[in-house]
Amino acid sequence: MSITAPSVFMVNVTGQVDSGRFMEGDNLYFNYCFTSGPDWEVVGGLEECVSQMSRRSDDERQIFIWNFPLDITFKSTNPHGWPQLVLSVYGNDIFGNDTIIGYTACHLPITPGIHKRRLTTFVPESASTIQKLMAWLTGRRPEFVDPKLIACGKGREVTRVRSHGEITVSFNVVMKDLEKLGYNSTGPSRNSSHFPLTQSVKDPVPSGSGLAVRSED
Predict the structure, then answer these.
(1) Other CB atoms closer than 10 Å to residue 167's CB: what's the count?
(2) Is the pTM higher than 0.70?
(3) φ and ψ at 191, to 5 degrees?
(4) Which is it for strands 84-92 and 26-35: parallel, antiparallel or unpaired?
(5) Is residue 82 within 8 Å of 36, Cβ to Cβ?
(6) How far is CA 138 from CA 132, 134, 135, in A?
(7) 132: phi > 0 → left, psi -120 to 50 → alpha, else beta; which?
(8) What is the 3-state secondary structure (H, E, C) of the chain?
(9) 15, 54, 21: which is closest to 164 by C-alpha?
């Protein structure tokens, strides 16, 4: 009896958005969403969600703790367009207005196991001093119409941003049938006929954009 080779591979990601550190704002919450290439399909879990509010801790750390769960499963035929997590943090300014506090994004880890990421967040800057003053008076900072824009490199070079805090995210990644399709999720090895994922998954964020990712695997 012949066994049919798999035509797709599966990637399951669980984890949580642990905490955030921001110099301003209170009662912070975030929206998250996933974005991926055209060959990827969500087969389980939540693709978008809104967290609960969190207040700044009273200790010396001064952090916002969410511990908000993530759980999603993808299937695909090739690793091009590897999924990314996009986070948009909102909170109250000094006038009590609900305003954007920071954006950030990162690729989901490309190897199985437990991973932790510290993501630097940023906010768009107004194009002129007058616009900055109006944004401060009205409590309406510049925002992206579609937060998924930050996961794309195209057009980002003309966007003015500044760093504004950081978020810690934990991932637990499980993969299925990836090596059966000829991809090596553990990196290149000697005499290997598999294609390393690092050649297919590229960071689309241009340098100098204010977005950084630090790994704590």
Answers:
(1) 23
(2) yes
(3) 60, 30
(4) antiparallel
(5) yes
(6) 10, 6, 5
(7) alpha
(8) CCCCCCCCEEEEEEEEEEEEECCCCEEEEEEEEEECCCCCEEEEECCEEECCCECECCCCCCCEEEEEEEEEEEEECCCCCCCEEEEEEEEECCCCCEEEEEEEEEECCCCCEEEEEEEEEEEECCCCHHHHHHHHHHCCCCCCCCHHHHHCCCCHHHCCEEEEEEEEEEEEEEEECCHHHCEECCCCCCCCCCEEHHHCCCCCCCCCCCCEEEECC
(9) 21
pLDDT over threshold 70, residue 85: yes
Q: How far is CA 60 from the centre of its chain?
A: 27
Report pLDDT digits (tens) over 153-212: 776 666 777 788 999 999 999 999 888 888 877 754 444 344 455 444 544 443 334 444
- Asked if 141 and 100 count as a contact pair (C-beta separation under 8 A), the reply is yes
Per-residue pLDDT at 145: 80
Residue type at 215 in one-letter notation: S
* Residues linked to residue 35 through DSSP beta bridges, in sequence order: 84
What number of CA atoms fall less than 13 Å from residue 2's CA on the CB side?
A: 3
